[in-house]
Write a structure and sequence with these properties.
This protein is of the alpha+beta class and about 625 residues long. It has 4 domains: about 1-60, Beta-grasp domain (Ubiquitin-like (UB roll), Roll), CATH 3.10.20; about 65-235, Threonyl-trna Synthetase, Chain A, domain 2 (Threonyl-tRNA Synthetase, Chain A, domain 2, 2-Layer Sandwich), CATH 3.30.980; about 250-530, 2-Layer Sandwich (BirA Bifunctional Protein, domain 2), CATH 3.30.930.10; about 545-635, Rossmann fold, CATH 3.40.50. Helix content is about 35%, strand content about 30%. The protein is built from 19 helices and 35 strands. An 8-stranded mixed sheet has the order 18-22-23-30-27-26-24-25, sandwiched between helices. A 5-stranded mixed sheet has the order 2-1-7-4-5, with helices on one face. Strands 8, 9, 10, 14 and 15 form a 5-stranded antiparallel sheet that branches. Helix 2 (about 60-85) packs across helix 3, helix 7 (about 240-245) packs across helix 15 and helix 12 (about 390-405) crosses helix 13.
Length: about 625
C-alpha cells in the first residue's frame, strides 16, 4: 500500500500502481486536467508506486490551462495530418492565450483549409480518444520519423540526448513530446482556430518558411464566446491599429525598428501631455532641465549602468579620444546638475525634472508599437533629499500620481513592489545592506500610506527597489506606467553630498520617478484606454467646421479664426464632398465636435453643433459653443 496526501491535508491509502485519474475521481475532482506529484507535473494517466503528495490542476490554474492548450495543439496537428497526410510537422506549443502549430504543407493554409481543420478537430475531440504516453528508444523514433519524412522532427530529435524519447498517442496519431497532456481528447470542448501566419523554421529567415496556425480552446462554449468578445474589443482598442488610422504615429522600415515617428496629430497630443505634466511639476517644486542625448561612457561606468545595464544600451562610438553612448537613462545627467552647486540641508529636497530622451536596445521580439520602443522620452525626475525626507517625498509623488490618474480617468491599476533578487548577481549591485535599507524604507513608506501592493522578487532596477504602477494593455499584457524608485547606490557612486545642520557633509538619497511614463508608452495607453476617442482637452483636432457648400467657406473661415483665436484646435473640411460624407469622415476621425455651417448659420452667426458624445445639439451662437467646449476642456471631462 502507498499513502497519498492531498492539498486539504487528508491522507488516503492506495494499492501500488493506482492511477492519478482514479485518485482524482475519488477526490471528486472531475475538473482535473493534470496532476502535480511532489510538485512535478504528471499526466492523469500516470500511476503511483510510492507515497506522494498529489495535487490536481484544472483549467483555472495557469499550469492546467497550459496543458489544455498543449493537448489542443496536438489535436490540431492530428487534424492537419488527417486532412493533409503529406504535411510536415514542426513545433506546437501552448502560448499565453491558446496555442499554435508550425506546419509545412508547401503552401500557406487558406481560410477554407482552416475551416476544415477546425471542423475536423471538433470531430476528433468528440471521439473522445484516450491520450497515452509511450516511451520508445531514440533509434526507433529516428527510424519512424525517417520513413515518414518528418524532417523537422528529426532535427529536433537530433538535439535530444536521451536514449528513450516520449511520445503522446491519440487515435493512431503520435507526436514526440515531453508532455504532460490531458487524459482524453474529449475534454477539449470549444475550439476556435484564430489565424495563420508565416513562420521560419527555428525563426531563421534562411530556412524553410512554415505555416503557423493559431488557435484557442476552452472547456465550455460560454468561455470561448467570452474570450472571442474580449478579443474583438482588444482589436477595436489596439493602439497599433488606431494609431495608424488616426494618423498619430508611424514606423518606417527605412528608419529602423522601434524608432517611432510622431505624426502631426500625435505630436499635438504629445505637446499637450508634455505641457500638462511640466506645468504640474513646476507647481510642485520641480526644476525642469535639458541634457544631451549623448554622454561619455565614463559617466555610465561611474553610475554602474555599464556594468549592469549594458545589454540594454547601444554600443559606444569613438570620437576623437572620447567614447560616447546614447543615453539609456537620465539619472547620471541629473546627478551632474545636482553637483553644480554646493548643497545644504536647507536646499533639499532638490527635484530635477526633464522630458528626457533615452535610447535602449530592446530585443526586437519585445517591441510592441509605441508600448515598447527603442527611442523614447521619459517624464523623468530625480529627487535628491535627506534620509528624513524620503517618506514625505515618496508620499508627494504618490499624491501626484493619484491626481494625474484622476485627470486621465485611470482607475484600473495594480501596485507592484519590485525587489531585487539576491541570487541574480549579474543584474543587481551586491551590497545587501543597501538593498535591505532601501527595500525596508520603501515598504515602510507604502505601509504608512496604507497602499496595497504585490511584492515581486527580481523586478527592481540595478540601483534600487521600486514601486511600479501596472496597467493593462488592450492585448491583455501588463505594463508599467508610473514608477517610484529608491536609490542609495548612485549617490554613493557619484559621492554626492550636502552640508548638514552640523556643518558636516552628508549623503543624500535619490528618488527616481516617472509619472506619465515615456511619451510613447503613455500615448499607447491613452489610445487604448479611450479607444481612440480622446476627450476634448487632449484631442488633436477639437472641432471641425463643415461648410455645406462653397459659398459657406468664407463664413467657415470666420468661425475658424474666432475659435483658433481662443486657442482651440480647429480645422475646416473644405472638400467637395456632400455634408453627410463630411460628417461620417469626422466621426471616423474621432473629432469631438463638428460644426455645420450653411445659409441659416451664416446669416445668424451660429453653428449647428454635432457632439461625438452627446449627438446633435442644434444651432447655437458661436460664443455659446465656445463656452461649452471651454468648460469641457478645463474640466478634462
Ligand atoms: C524613472 N532611471 C529611472 C527614471 O528615473 C528609469 O529609467 N526607470 S525605468 O528604467 O524603469 O524606466 C522608466 C519608465 O520608462 C518605465 O517605468 C516605463 O514606463 C518606461 N519605459 C521603459 N522602457 C521603455 C520602452 N522600451 N519603451 C517605452 N517605455 C519604456
Ligand atoms: Zn533615474
Amino acid at each position: 500500500m502507498i499513502e497519498v496526501r492531498l492539498p486539504d491535508g487528508s491522507v488516503k491509502k492506495y494499492d501500488v500502481g493506482v492511477s492519478l485519474a482514479q485518485i482524482a475521481q475519488d477526490a471528486g475532482r472531475r475538473d482535473a486536467l493534470v496532476a502535480k506529484v511532489n510538485g512535478e507535473l504528471r499526466d492523469l494517466t500516470a500511476r503511483l508506486d510510492q507515497d506522494a503528495a498529489v495535487e490536481f490542476l484544472a483549467f483555472d490554474d495557469p499550469e492546467g490551462r497550459e496543458v489544455y492548450w498543449h493537448s489542443s495543439a496536438h489535436l490540431l496537428a492530428q487534424a492537419v495530418k488527417d486532412l493533409f497526410p503529406e504535411a510536415k510537422l514542426a513545433i506546437g506549443p501552448p502560448i499565453d492565450e491558446g496555442f499554435y502549430y508550425d506546419i509545412n504543407i508547401g503552401r500557406p493554409f487558406t481560410p477554407e483549409d482552416v475551416e476544415r481543420i477546425e471542423a475536423h478537430m471538433r470531430e476528433l475531440a468528440k471521439r473522445d480518444q484516450p491520450i497515452e504516453r509511450v516511451e520508445i528508444p531514440r533509434e526507433e523514433a529516428i527510424r519512424t520519423y525517417g520513413t515518414m519524412g518528418e524532417k523537422y522532427k528529426l532535427e529536433l530529435l537530433d538535439e535530444i540526448p536521451d536514449a528513450r524519447v516520449s511520445f503522446y498517442r491519440q487515435d493512431g496519431f503520435m507526436d514526440m513530446c515531453r508532455g504532460p497532456h490531458l487524459p482524453r481528447t474529449g475534454l477539449i470542448n470549444a475550439i476556435k482556430l484564430l489565424s495563420t501566419s508565416g513562420a521560419y523554421w527555428r525563426g531563421d529567415e534562411h530556412r524553410d518558411m512554415l505555416s503557423r496556425i493559431y488557435g484557442v480552446t476552452f472547456p465550455s462554449q460560454e468561455q470561448l464566446d467570452e474570450f472571442l468578445q474580449q478579443l474583438e474589443e482588444a482589436k477595436r482598442r489596439d493602439h497599433r491599429r488606431l494609431g495608424k488610422e488616426l494618423k498619430i504615429f508611424a514606423f518606417a522600415q527605412e528608419l529602423g525598428q522601434g524608432l517611432p515617428l510622431w505624426l502631426p496629430r500625435g505630436a499635438t497630443v504629445r505637446r499637450i501631455l508634455e505641457n500638462y505634466i511640466t506645468d504640474l511639476e513646476l507647481q510642485r517644486g520641480y526644476h525642469h532641465v535639458y541634457a544631451p542625448d549623448l554622454a561619455s561612457v565614463e559617466l555610465y561606468k561611474i553610475s554602474g549602468h555599464w556594468d549592469y545595464f549594458r545589454e540594454s544600451m547601444y554600443p559606444p562610438m569613438q570620437v576623437d579620444n572620447e567614447e560616447l553612448v546614447l543615453k539609456p537613462m537620465n539619472c547620471p545627467h541629473h546627478i551632474m546638475i545636482y553637483k553644480q552647486e554646493q548643497r545644504s540641508y536647507r536646499h533639499l529636497p532638490v527635484r530635477i525634472a526633464e522630458l528626457g530622451r533615452m535610447y535602449r536596445y530592446e530585443r526586437s521580439g519585445t517591441l510592441a508599437g509605441l508600448q515598447r520602443v527603442r527611442s523614447m522620452t521619459l517624464n523623468d525626475a530625480h529627487i535628491f533629499c535627506r534620509p528624513d525626507q524620503v517618506k514625505a517625498e515618496f508620499a508627494a509623488v504618490v499624491g501626484l500620481i493619484q491626481d494625474v490618474y484622476r485627470d486621465f480617468h485611470i482607475s484600473d491599476y495594480r501596485l507592484d513592489l519590485s525587489l531585487h533578487d539576491p541570487k541574480d548577481r549579474q543584474y543587481y549591485h551586491q551590497d545587501e545592506e543597501l538593498w535591505k535599507a532601501a527595500e525596508g524604507l520603501l515598504r515602510e513608506a507604502l505601509d504608512e500610506l496604507g497602499l496595497a501592493y504585490h511584492a515581486v522578487i527580481g523586478g527592481a532596477n540595478f540601483y534600487g527597489p521600486k514601486l511600479d504602477v501596472q496597467v493593462h494593455t488592450a492585448t491583455g499584457k501588463v505594463e508599467t506606467l508610473s514608477t517610484i524608485q529608491l536609490d542609495f547606490l548612485l549617490p554613493r557612486r557619484f559621492e554626492l553630498e550636502y552640508i548638514g545642520e552640523d556643518g558636516k557633509a552628508h549623503r543624500p538619497v535619490m528618488i527616481h520617478r516617472a509619472i506619465i511614463s515615456t511619451m510613447e508608452r503613455m500615448m499607447a495607453f491613452l489610445i487604448e484606454n479611450y479607444a481612440g476617442d480622446f476627450p476634448a482637452w487632449l484631442a488633436p483636432e477639437q472641432a471641425r467646421i463643415l461648410p455645406i457648400a462653397d459659398r459657406h467657406l468664407e463664413y467657415a473661415h470666420k468661425v475658424r479664426d474666432r475659435l483658433a483665436g481662443e486657442g482651440l484646435r480647429v480645422e475646416i473640411d473644405d472638400s467637395n464632398e456632400r455634408i453627410s460624407y463630411k460628417v461620417r469622415r469626422g466621426q471616423l476621425e474621432r473629432v469631438p465636435y463638428m460644426l455645420v455651417a450653411g445659409d441659416k448659420e451664416a446669416q445668424s452667426g451660429q453653428v449647428a453643433v454635432r457632439s461625438r458624445s452627446a449627438g446633435d445639439l442644434g444651432a447655437v451662437p458661436i460664443e455659446q459653443f465656445l463656452e461649452r467646449i471651454r468648460h469641457e476642456i478645463t474640466s478634462k471631462a
